[in-house]
Design a protein that fits this description.
The complex is a heterodimer of chains A (406) and B (64). Helix content of chain A is 49%, strand content 9%. By secondary structure, chain A is of the alpha+beta class. Chain A has a 5-stranded mixed beta sheet with strand order 1-2-8-5-3. In chain A, strands 4-10-9 form a 3-stranded antiparallel beta sheet. In chain A, α9 packs parallel to α19, α10 runs antiparallel to α15 and α12 packs across α14. Chain B has 2 helices and 4 strands; from the N terminus they run βαββαβ. Classes of the chains: A alpha+beta (406), B alpha+beta (64).
Chain lengths: 406, 64
């Protein structure tokens, strides 16, 4: 085990200037930067220069990534993430104290331990495998509506804008329990351009309505729990923001992957019973997160023969881990029949995606319907074939425009 | 093979109920339940898969 220790890498940290390495920007959702594979060859983790200039690590190895994400000695407190929620939340606008606190809690992604577990547990039941299956009829209805929409305006449509985004937003709004008459506003504020303050005020507007009549939606369940109003705001905020764009991203990116790999698409068309398991390959091959929110070592830690020092920032890369050849043979091959379970497309550990079972249902129904309703579907142009800017502050890919015809 | 689950650790990701629905379920709060303490031989691989996928290490298997 000892020969694996990162003595050499530790040395490089002493001279950051000559060894500064930043996240590569030449990757695309389906074709990660070759730099990641080079780093993965060097070791399980490599030195990384973060956007604010401080030095830390990027984990490219699958096993180390998984071990690290379940290790409570690594904290997700955002002290070293530039642009932590509390600092940037309101931009130029004057934040009120309550909104600041809600904003802190909105970083459920940024708190750990019992506080995080208590808040997360209030809504877990609404995202179980069974709960997700229960939403399938509504998901199907929403997807069918968008299929009709495509037929009406196409061929020659931007899938992200006309299919993926409307589906993920409508399902998200429905499951959370955003009132019908506010769904358009939800779409406008959260899928479009708006300030953090506008979003927080919208969350409050919705919660005021839900408090009058807490139903069995996610928000209703949260209101019936013993969370404080500020905690409710924080949790609602993170739920309004998270997952909506990622599901849309996955629908678009998966479609691009299938249309670029016709033999794989054919397998699914010939046997739709392959689709549920193929979801895992979609998530592995097209993972959205180049890195997750970085973790900080709260003490010296040795994991998988790798030494982290107290205070080190560590960015785990699902994209790199998902292309680990030991775990996923021939990893750059998109193979809808492989067993891709164990991918990090939904993250891992206590901060792993809470809505992943719902996301699986949405992705399955959206892809299944699209490929069966349009047997001659073809890709005209995918913006994501060329590198695009990341969504910040975490390095995530964007789906971009994907123009399809049939 | 026997199954033991640590409900306090469970984060409700549902991986176990997804890959091994005859062995695991989630209660109304989304927390793991072992449906049977003994794993039938034919299901042992699925039990191992569920345990290895668990993001909270909340599933322990006791091999007999």
């Amino acid at each position: 085990m000892n020969e694996d220790l990162n003595t050499e890498s530790t040395e490089t940290r002493k001279c950051p200037v000559s060894h500064q390495r930043v996240l590569p920007t030449d990757g695309t959702p389906l074709k990660p930067s070759p730099t990641l594979a080079e780093w993965a060859k060097e070791g399980k983790a490599s030195p990384l220069s973060f956007t604010d200039g401080h030095q830390g690590w990027i984990v490219t190895d699958h096993a180390l990534a998984r071990d690290l994400l379940v290790d409570s000695r690594f904290s997700q407190l955002p002290q070293r993430i530039p642009g932590a929620l509390t600092q940037v939340a309101f931009g130029d606008q004057e934040p009120d104290e309550r909104a600041e606190e809600a904003s802190r809690l909105a970083g459920l992604l940024a708190i750990d331990g019992p506080e995080h577990a208590r808040i997360r547990r209030t809504i877990l039941g609404k995202f179980s495998v069974r709960a997700a299956k229960g939403h399938e009829p509504k998901v199907r209805e929403i997807v069918n509506k968008q299929i009709s929409h495509l037929s009406a305006i196409g061929p020659g449509v931007d899938l992200e804008h006309e299919y993926s985004n409307p589906i993920s937003t409508a399902v998200h709004g429905h499951v959370l329990g955003i009132p019908e008459h506010l769904q358009d506003k939800y779409y406008r504020l959260f899928a479009g351009d708006s300030s953090q303050a506008e979003k927080v005020y919208f969350v409050r507007e919705v919660l005021e309505i839900k408090r009058l009549n807490p139903d069995d939606s996610v928000l209703g369940e949260m209101i019936k729990s013993d969370l404080s109003e500020v905690e409710e705001e924080g949790l609602a905020f993170v739920l309004f923001v998270s997952g909506r764009d990622s599901v849309a991203y996955m629908i678009t990116t998966t479609t691009v992957a299938l249309l670029q790999n016709p033999s794989e698409l054919e397998k699914l068309r010939n046997d739709s019973s392959l689709i549920p398991a193929a979801i895992e390959e979609f998530m592995r091959y097209g993972a959205m997160f180049l890195t997750l929110f970085s973790r900080t070592a709260t003490e010296d830690v040795e994991l998988q023969g790798f030494r982290f020092s107290k205070g080190d920032s560590v960015a785990v890369s699902p994209v790199a881990a998902n292309r680990n050849a030991q775990v996923f043979p021939d990893p750059n091959q998109f193979d809808v029949t492989r067993d891709a379970f164990g991918h990090l497309g939904f993250g891992h550990g206590i901060h792993g995606c809470v809505g992943q079972q719902l996301a699986r249902v949405e992705l399955r129904v959206a892809i299944e319907s699209l490929i069966s309703k349009f047997p001659k579907l073809r890709l005209l142009e995918a913006e994501q074939s060329r590198p695009m800017d990341f969504a910040h502050p975490v390095a995530t890919y964007k789906a971009g425009r994907a123009t399809v015809s049939w | 093979m026997k199954i033991s689950v640590t409900q306090d650790a469970c984060v409700g990701a549902g991986q176990c109920a997804l890959v091994a629905p005859e062995l695991f379920d989630q209660d109304d709060e989304g927390i793991v339940i072992a449906l049977r303490p003994e794993v039938p031989e034919a299901q042992e691989d699925l039990a191992r898969k569920a345990a290895s996928l668990c993001p909270a290490r909340a599933i322990q298997l006791i091999e007999s």
